[in-house]
Design a protein that fits this description.
Blueprint: H1 2-28, H2 47-61, H3 65-77, H4 109-122, H5 129-143, H6 163-169, H7 177-185, H8 191-198, E1 205-207, H9 212-215, H10 233-242, E2 251-253, H11 264-270, H12 277-281, H13 286-295, H14 302-313
Antiparallel strand pairs: 1-2
Length: 334
């Protein structure tokens, strides 16, 4: 009976999300032109099942990996659009996005290529790497207990990828509230949507690289006492134990429930336990704090708003038709 009730609640959440997104899509023509939910219905009808199969495999091995797949969409779409460019390798003459400073420790690239290989075996030259990122991010989030949202497909893969574009577009984890709002505004996202998407930090893990400025170099003094004063002292001590000064490569869970998509992230931020400077920055502004406080409550609209923001993000800089290609492997252009 308990499991049946849980399953019922899960489906009620799905239905609620679908209704919310359906209203949103009808009001704003939410999908980019040429994209559709049934894009591969005739050319690769098994595409969704293949993506789901591999996402299940990855999460079975590491439940926190849902965070890596979710963030991969952000790191791709925020730089020139959702074109799979974050997956491309550097060459002798070009340093690619994934080698930018802001992408230090980025995970999920190899796994997306694993999904791509399976899709190439089933439907050669049909499914783009850009679409795999979008579908995998949704599946991983939902399987981690988060919201479900419809994914429109039909993107082509881009051919341009540079570290300068990544570092010039993605927000570094040291930005204050004003700079975060400005960064998101450049992509036509509101301050509220910025706080919503920050909620992706509720799952996964991170390297210490992005945490060190929070602990040792908050004002530029670069010493063991130069800590962000907004940090809970006990939490700061915990972070320092796991991220010694100068150690960029240690990894740490990003949240107390790293394998579960929930609203604990917002509760942590309010308690002074935001893992990045950008997390703590959310409550340094009255508007940001108001939004964080609302999402920290039970029965908030965080799940629905996160789903809508991910759909919106998936429309950024979409390439269709002859604007791009369908890569044979995701880390190399054809």
């Amino acid at each position: 009976m308990a499991s049946a009730r849980a399953q019922s609640n899960s489906w009620l959440l799905v239905i609620s999300s679908v209704l919310f997104l359906g209203t949103l899509c009808a009001a704003t023509s939410e999908y980019a032109p040429s994209l559709s939910e049934n894009y591969y219905e005739k050319t690769c009808p098994q595409a969704a099942d293949i993506v789901e199969k591999y996402v299940n495999k990855f999460l079975k091995k590491d439940s926190s990996f849902a965070g890596a797949l979710s963030r991969l969409q952000f790191h791709d779409c925020w730089v020139g659009g959702c074109d799979g460019s974050v997956l491309l390798n550097s060459t002798e003459t070009n340093s690619a996005e994934k080698d930018g400073h802001v992408n230090f420790g980025l995970r999920g690239v190899t796994e997306i290529d694993e999904i791509k290989a399976a899709l190439e075996s089933a439907c050669p030259g049909v499914v783009s790497c850009a679409d795999i990122i979008i579908a995998a991010a949704r599946d991983a989030t939902f399987k981690a207990g988060g919201p479900w949202w419809p994914v429109a497909l039909g993107r082509k893969d881009g051919r341009v990828s540079t570290d300068l574009l990544a570092d010039g577009n993605l927000p570094f984890p040291v930005l204050n509230f004003t700079l975060l709002v400005d960064n998101f505004a450049r992509k036509n996202f509101s301050a509220r949507e910025m706080v919503v998407l920050s909620g992706a930090h509720t799952i996964g893990n991170t390297h210490c690289n992005g945490i060190l400025p929070h602990l040792y170099n908050f004002t530029g003094a670069n010493n063991a006492t130069d800590i962000d004063p907004a940090l809970n002292k006990g939490f700061a001590a915990f972070l320092k134990k796991n991220c010694p000064q100068g150690n960029r490569t240690n990894t740490i869970f990003i949240n107390s429930t790293p394998g579960k998509f929930d609203n604990v992230y917002y509760k942590s931020v309010l308690a002074g336990k935001g893992i990045f400077i950008t997390d703590s920055a959310l409550i340094t502004d009255s508007l940001g704090k108001k939004i964080v406080t609302s999402f920290a409550k039970a029965n908030s609209t965080f799940f629905e708003e996160f789903a809508a923001a991910m759909v919106k993000m998936g429309n950024l800089g979409v390439l269709t038709g002859s604007q791009g290609e369908i890569r044979k492997t995701c880390q190399f252009v054809n």
